[in-house]
Every structure is written in C-alpha cells, then in structure tokens.
Amino acid sequence: MQEITQLHAIFDRTRGYINRFMGIIQPIIDAAQDEHTRLYYHHILEEEEQRMGRLQELVPYLENVSGKESLAQLSDRELSQLLSDVNLERFGLHNFREHLELSLYEFQDDETRTTLDGMREKTHADYLQVKEIMASLSGRFSDGSHPDLTDHDEGHDIHQVDHLKASATAAHGVASVIKHAAPAKTAAPGKKGLTVGSLKGH
Amino acid sequence: MQEITQLHAIFDRTRGYINRFMGIIQPIIDAAQDEHTRLYYHHILEEEEQRMGRLQELVPYLENVSGKESLAQLSDRELSQLLSDVNLERFGLHNFREHLELSLYEFQDDETRTTLDGMREKTHADYLQVKEIMASLSGRFSDGSHPDLTDHDEGHDIHQVDHLKASATAAHGVASVIKHAAPAKTAAPGKKGLTVGSLKGH
Ligand SMILES: [Fe+2]
Ligand SMILES: [Fe+2]
After folding, report:
1. Which of A31, A129, A135, B157 gives 20 to 30 Å between its CA and that of A194?
2. GO cellular component terms (chains A, B) (predicted)?
3. How crowded is residue B159: how many other Cβ atoms within 10 Å of its Cβ?
4. What is the pTM of this model?
C-alpha cells in the first residue's frame, strides 16, 4: 500500500499549502481597490476552498485505506471510485500550480515570491507523481478498465514557460493598483511605504 | 423524474455555453502579447475543458436515468453518487459564472458583452435551480443522509456586485495590452483598427 501512503502524504501536504496560499492572497482581496481585482482573487480562493472541502474527505479516506493489508480488500467499485476521486485531485494540483504561477505576477517582494515558487515547484512534482501512481494503480483493475490519464495540458507551450522569470520583468500585476501587497506578517512595523493595513484604512 | 430531466437540460445547455465561451476566449490567448495574459485565459479555458470532460459523462448518464420510471430504481449508492456528481457540477456552474464575469472586464464591444452577460444570467439561474433540485432529491435518501449544500459564496459581497456595470467603466481589462480583442467573426472585414488576425501576424 505504498502508493496509497504516498497519495496520503501528497494530499495532506497540499492542504497545508492551501492554507499558506490563502494567508498570502486574502490581504490582496481585503486591500483591492476595484471590483475586478477583488473578483479575480476571490474566485481563485473560492476554487481552493472547494478543493479543500473535497480533500477533507479524501485525506482521511486515504489514511484509512493505507491501513489495509492490500488493495484487494477494496471492491472494484471502491477502487474505481478512489481512482476517480484521485484523478479529480490530480487536476486540482494542476490548477493549483497555475494559481500559484498567476500569483507570481502579483508580488514584487522576494520573500513572498520564494514562498509561492517553492509551493509551485513541489506541487508540480506532486502532480507528476500522482499521475505515475494512478497509472500503476489502474493496471490492477480486474476488469481491465483504465481511467483516462490524458493531460489537458499537452501541447500547450504555456506550461514550459518559466513564470518566475517572466513575472520578475512583468510591467504590471493583475492588481497593479496595489502598490505594495506583501502579506501583513512580512511588513516590518517601522517599514516605510504602503502596507496592506494602510491600504485598508483608505 | 422531472428533476432529472431538468438537470439534464441544465447541464446540456452549459455544454453549449462552454463551446461558445471557448470560441470567444481562444482568440485572446492566440493574440496575447505577454505570458501573464496567456496563462490567465489558458487557465480559465483549461478549467472549462475539465468541466466539459466531466459533463460528457454526466449528461448521458442523466439522460439514461431520466428514462427510468422512478428514482427508487436507483440504489442508495447510485443516488448518493449521482448527488455527489451533481454537487460538483453545481460548483462548476458557480465557477463558470465567475469566469464569465471576469471576462466581461476584457471586452469593450457590445455584442460580446451581451453574449457573455446573457450566459452569465442563465448560468446563475441554473445554479440556483440545481441547488433547489438537490435539496429536493437529498430528502429522498432512505438513510436520512444529506449532501452538504453550503454555499462557499455566502457572506461574500462580491457576488452582489453588478459586474456588467462595473466592467463598463473599468479602466483596464486584464489583457489591457490587447487593444481590440473582439472575436474574429465580429470584426467586419473593412473595419479600421487592430483585429485579432492582425495582432497574430506580429
Ligand atoms: Fe482557477
Ligand atoms: Fe477559475
């Protein structure tokens, strides 16, 4: 059941990432000066909230299954449902990677950019590992059926772009109206310039 | 089985909307002059492709179920799975509404804006109807269990904003680098100014 233990570790980690990501993005929503910026980040956070809701069921289920002696203890129907749920979260990891990349275009400060890019890199590695695990698990179906492991992203050059690099030289972030948008905790009390707090006070 | 027939009509309609939406957005991706804009719209289209993939299974299944004499012909497990699938697509409708709203900030031409806003309005009505149908269906569980019908969007003022109005006066769309981004079919041949085709030729 090594694969199930690995899946459990991956989806448990991404739950932690969602929380860190929300802590970074929420101040942008709170400080947004226009409806478009607010809707944009609100939308991304809502999608991550929906993903979190699903993971709160999947992660304990994976923990439970990892305690079994073998996958043979699952019925074909249970295994099929598990693969279907994991496949949905494979897309979830892919979409989260893009949420992180999109957010790189927002932040100018190195600390936030390093945090986002670190989560992006690990999330991409997790996505690839989930794909491998699924290919391995789906081979064990007694009826020979396989879930569709097609990437929606094949043939799209955009996934080969180094968005850390591209965003470093980008003239405007989406929320270019927010001049300084580092999370509150990284803003030193005596630091000059706009902080999220000062923007909120407007 | 009136509810199942209604669900079938809703999700069949949204498949058509996804195709119309893709036809409107793809030219923006093709004409995008920077990686951020390209990633942004590519991401939205990818999410809609994923939704379409799920709907291609759900819609025929709903058609099949609507032919049955009563829901009692479904096992508790099948009904539970159906409600879970429909609940995921309830979120899908909600997210699609926001994709449409976000896109309103991109387009200046009345024809595209009217198309987007029409789909937005109907999608929101569909979303509300799915919610009602689910509440009705979940009451029929013999074990008394209910899916969580909580909105992630409750308490968020952003959903009360008239984005058609807000976007009309917005200074910049996300892809403000694209000066004229109407779909190719709406650009009259002799029309002055940039067209998607002329942008692509750069
Ligand atoms: Fe997204
Ligand atoms: Fe989205």
Report:
1. B157
2. encapsulin nanocompartment
3. 18
4. 0.82
Cα end-to-end span (Å), chain A: 55
| pLDDT value of residue A143 | 60
Contact across the interface for A156 and B42, Cβ inside 8 Å: yes
Whats the size of chain A, residue-wise? 202
**Which residue among A152, A166, A174 places its CB closest to the CB of B35?**
A166
Please tell me the distance in Å from A81's CA to the nearest CA on chain B. 9
Does pLDDT of B183 surpass 50?
no
CB A154 within 8 Å of CB A135: no
What one-character DSSP code corresponds to residue B139? T
* Ordered DSSP codes for B83-100: HHHHHHHHHHHHHHHHHH
Q: Which long-range contacts (CB under 8 A, 24 or more apart) does B131-135 make?
A: B131/B90, B133/B3, B133/B6, B133/B7, B133/B86, B134/B83, B134/B86, B134/B87, B134/B90
Query: Can you tell me whether residue B179 is helix, strand or coil?
Result: coil
DSSP string, A37-81: HHHHHHHHHHHHHHHHHHHHHHHHHHHHHHTSS-GGGS-HHHHHH
Give the DSSP per-residue string, A155-197: T-GGGGS-HHHHHHT-S--TTTT-S----GGGS-TT--S--HH
- HSE-up (13 A, CA, CB side) for residue A187: 18
**DSSP per position, B24-65:** HHHHHHHH--SHHHHHHHHHHHHHHHHHHHHHHHHHHHHHHH
In 3-state terms chain A splits into helix, strand, coil percentages (rounded to 5) of 70, 0, 30
* Tens digit of each residue's pLDDT (9 = 90 or more) over B26-45: 999 999 888 999 999 999 99
Q: CB A153 to CB B46 under 8 A?
A: yes
Of B148, B158, B173, the CB nearest to A38: B158
Q: Can you list the residues of chain A whose pLDDT is less than 50?
A: 171-202
Identify the domain containing residue A44 by its residue range. Answer: 2-200
Tell me how many domains chain A contains: 1
Judge residue A166's burial from the number of C-beta atoms within 10 Å of its C-beta, 0-12 exposed, 13-18 middle, 19 or more buried: middle
Considering only CA atoms, give the Rg of chain B.
20
Angle among Cα A144, A149, A151 to the nearest 5 degrees reads 165
Nearest-by-Cβ selection for B40 from A36, A102, A156? A102
Enumerate residues 34 to 73 of chain A having a beta carbon within 8 A of any beta carbon in chain B: 34-36, 38-40, 42-43, 46-47, 49-50, 53
